[in-house]
Design goal:
- The longest helix has 14 residues.
- The chain has five helices and five strands; from the N terminus they run E-H-E-H-E-H-E-H-E-H.
- By secondary structure, it is an alpha/beta fold.
- Strand 4, helix 4 and strand 5 form a beta-alpha-beta unit.
- Strands 2-1-3-4-5 form a five-stranded parallel sheet, with helices on both faces.
- Helix 3 runs parallel beside helix 4.
Length: 147
């Protein structure tokens, strides 16, 4: 059975771009959430192996969502992908068990980190059939300066 990946971001464009990119690197069931509260609900319902959270989201922010998910599903790999990266956020996130905080400007690092995590898991599909990770995907994500 392919692993489940939950993508939580309040931007439909970002969710769509990440969904498309992740679907090309590893066979997975991809789920989406539009805010942190929905991410927690879907994580508890579907028990994904990987959760990708934006930090700034309505209802519940990514750090709070990560904390709630990890309390119930400590084996879940959580990555925060945000435009608001800071050393402080990195320290707070890793202290609660988030694997990595990555700037959306360096989103190719996110794809590589997720791919590495999935490839390190017991095989559920033929890893040799997964295409290579893209060199850069930042241009596929929407420009945050444009509404």
């Amino acid at each position: 059975m392919p692993p489940r990946i939950l993508i939580a971001d309040d931007s439909l464009n970002v969710r769509t771009a990440l969904h498309q990119l992740l679907s090309h690197i590893h066979p997975a069931e991809l789920l989406e959430a539009a805010n942190g509260h929905e991410a927690v609900s879907k994580a508890l319902e579907f028990s994904p192996e990987v959760v990708i959270l934006d930090f700034v989201m309505p209802v519940t922010d990514g750090l709070t969502a990560a904390r709630k998910i990890l309390q119930q599903l400590p084996q879940t790999a959580i990555f925060i992908c945000t435009m608001h990266w800071s050393q402080y956020l990195e320290e707070q996130a890793t202290a609660i068990g988030v694997r990595q905080v990555i700037s959306k400007a360096q989103s190719s690092l996110l794809i590589a980190a997720v791919e590495q995590f999935l490839n390190d898991q017991p095989p559920s599909a033929d890893p040799a059939s997964a295409p290579a990770s893209p060199d850069t995907i930042a241009e596929d994500l929407p420009d945050p300066a444009r509404p």
